[in-house]
Amino acid sequence: MEGKKLALVAIFCLTFSMLPSNTVSIAVMSVDLGSEWMKMAIVKPGVPMEIVLNKESRRKTPTAVCLKENERLFGDSALGMSVKNPKTVYLHLQSLLGKKHDNLQVALYQKRFPEHQLQEDPVRGTVYFKYSEEMQYTAEELLGMVLNYSCGLAQDFAEQPIKDAVITVPAFFNQAERRAVLQAARLAGLKVLQLINDNTAVALNYGVFRRKDIDNTAKNVMFYDMGSGSTTATIVTYQTVKTKESGTQPQLQIRGVGFDRGLGGFEMDLRLRDHLAKLFNEQKKSKKDVRENHRAMAKLLKEAQRLKTVLSANVDFMAQVEGLMDDIDFKSKVTRAEFENLCADLFERVPQPVKDALSAAEMTMNEIEQVILVGGATRVPKVQEVLLKAVEKEELGKNINADEAAAMGAVYQAAALSKAFKVKPFLVRDAAVFPIQVDFTRETEEEGIKSVKHNKRILFDRMAPYPQRKVITFNRYNTDFAFDINYGDLSFLTKEDISIFGSLNLTTVRLSGVDGSFLKHADAESKGIKAHFNMDESGVLLLDRVEAVFETVEEEKEEESTLTKLGNTISTLFGGGSSEPTPNVTEPVQDEEEVPPESGTESQDKDNKEEAEKEKQEESEKNAAEEKTQKTEEEEAGSKTETKEEQENKTNGEADAEKKEKPKKKSKISEDITVELLINDILDPTTDQLASSKKRLQDLTDRDVAKQEREKTLNSLEAFIFETQDKLYQEEFQLVVSEEEKDQISAKLREASEWMDEDGYTATTKQLREKLSKLKSLSKDMFFRVEERRKWPDHLAALESMLNTSTFFLRSAKMIPVDDQIFTDVELNLLEKVINETTTWKNETVAEQEKRSPQERPVLLSKDIESKLALLDREVNYLLNKAKFAKPKAKAKAKNGTSSDKSNGTSEEKTIPPTEEDPPAKSETPEEVQPGEAPPTAEDAAQTETDDQTPPTEEATTTGPTEKGHHENHIDDEL
């Protein structure tokens, strides 16, 4: 029983902690940002994980935005506009993020969407869309609009504000592309908890729902994700691991990733589109080339997308487009064999991401337990056929939602990162697809000849896990210098991939103030210049800080007493101690520059080993000195029985030894170095540029909101005019309105209708609201009278039923014998009074209302009837609850029966029978009412009856505890 109580308390506390605050939004969302579609999911109190439905009640939304002169459209509305006016619709924005104007990907985008005009940013070198001189937007700004729209959909679905989000990105996104997504999210007003790789989100979703199947035996699973724009193969290892924080927990680790940036369903759609255009031209129904008509090509693309889906289940299908060009219809038969021939070279590329993933993970296909399909393009039969041969498995796994897995995995991660939710831990170790290294040069002198030597140190290897911190130490610099952060060996990429990849150089780091720190600490030994790097949860590399570290050596002071040591230890625990920085969680990269003339990997390993041995030797010497000091104290404490001469001789000998081998104390000093970062790949927008972009997007949002509000007001005004004109001729309205009032309302409605036809559609929102407010005010009394007459029958019937029920209950309560009576006279009298007053009020008000004309304001109001009903219901429920929880009176027993009760060991309370002096009204025992409830006393009743100024209500005739009992009993009864 006690365990059940504790469980209930725990559930209550958990539920209470999940309740939303009135001021703080705690719902979180995820956005699976695909190149063609995006899916959103939310987590909020009471809703664990759920996919967001858009305004069309669909579970996925096109990643599209339409920009017209006076409005913006998103999702399906924007996609529909792409057929009518493709120049105003922007699609597949992901492929332009973090790219310069001369990138091959930009040229490919221009070829696919020739209706758009792409210009080069003179400062950043990136591209922007130019629709007109006034309408020019970057890819980040357009993506920010899309993210803002997705946030709005999630907020409408969650019915509360949402700002925290986890956004998915392709695993092959480099540093510039990831920063571009973060910039777009910042423009959208979203707080990004993490950029999670889409393949990692899928793997997390798969693991969360199979937690019970994960044990300490490693299981390798491959996810093959072919979406609209790209293909990714990922090898994931599932295994339980022990952690200090939460014990044994399941973990997923990304072991290998292979990808193809250009292999996806969209390329298949384009080839089908071009094939349909060729068929139309061959029919020679028009002299024009359909490929030069952007609108016609957009129609063919839409039909090609439908055709690809149908051919996945049928061997042939009839493609048709009405009014393709110049009012000419198009109709032609296409077979699955023709489609497979069109995409033959694409299907040949299907196995390559699998091979690349196995190579990165250093595994064979025999070590992979299962291959699971993800992404819409994997539904193409030929893709599955080729992939099945490549992976050498009996079947492909289809036990995951190919469209929504990434969104669901990302929202689980969002809930885990949010402080408002507590989820079961699932450890995620993602991996960096591209290696990163540090390059620097230094002068060397060999046989009197000075030369500049180039050095490089690997910071993050390929498939290195992150988040992770690394430290690189430069030991041979005592003046200002610079080093470069670049990508490492990318030989696993093809030449085309590297050209699309962009700049191989990331950042140049210039350090200043190094010589000043050396001059300041000239007496100390230099431990090098340490650069602290951090690859965060989003896979973005950051340089946290650079510091110069020095070490000073001092002789130990006289031996401290035990109390002094204890005091120093306590002060260290509470914030004192050395100023040495906290050690990193991961093992730092020991990048010492004390390199022999020969360079290469062997010299680097030698330097690392020498440094490690040096540190171990210093640490062992320090430990040995401390042990010796402790041993000396013990010997001194145990030598009290020795003779004075022996003690003196021994002490002198130890003192001489201590002077020879006295340990030295080392302390470290760190000083921050000024850092200047020069970005070499894609420049980030300046603060002013970001502020300007935010303002432009906010202005567009405000314009959209104002337009929606005006349209809503305009529709409301139109609807009110037509509906009210119609109602004036309905029977129930004609009954309550006079001819004079009817003529007045009709005239105003007719005037408003004429104004709408002439000026209404160009009027401002304020003018429309004022017009609507005046019309509503004019006809308010008429609607009120009609509404009241509609409510009377049901309300009066309910009141009559309640009066009958209350009267019957009162009669039954009064018939209870005195010995068994559980109600006091005050309670019964109060109920009787309420019944009589309600009956009198009903009869008098109804009679007066019948005398009035229907065109006059009624005196019988529905709200008054509801008030009377509530009062009667409250009084009767109070007495019913009292009867429900009342215990029967205990009968007085004879004296000779007392001993038997005691012998039986019962715990029943002893009941004192009423005496002659006690009136019957006070004969109730506390057992007759619910515990914690105080019945009205005789003094309270007398005071109530003599009080002429206050009407006898429930509150006036009960004490404070009784009111509490009222409330609690009422709640218990409802439950």
From TrEMBL:
Top-level taxonomic group: Eukaryota
Pfam family, one: HSP70
GO BP annotations listed: endoplasmic reticulum unfolded protein response; negative regulation of hypoxia-induced intrinsic apoptotic signaling pathway
GO CC, one annotated term: endoplasmic reticulum chaperone complex
GO terms assigned for molecular function: ATP binding; ATP-dependent protein folding chaperone
PROSITE patterns on file: HSP70_2, HSP70_3
Family per record: Belongs to the heat shock protein 70 family.
Name of the featured protein: Hypoxia up-regulated protein 1
Organism: Takifugu rubripes (Japanese pufferfish)
Phylogenetic lineage: Eukaryota, Metazoa, Chordata, Craniata, Vertebrata
Name of the gene: hyou1
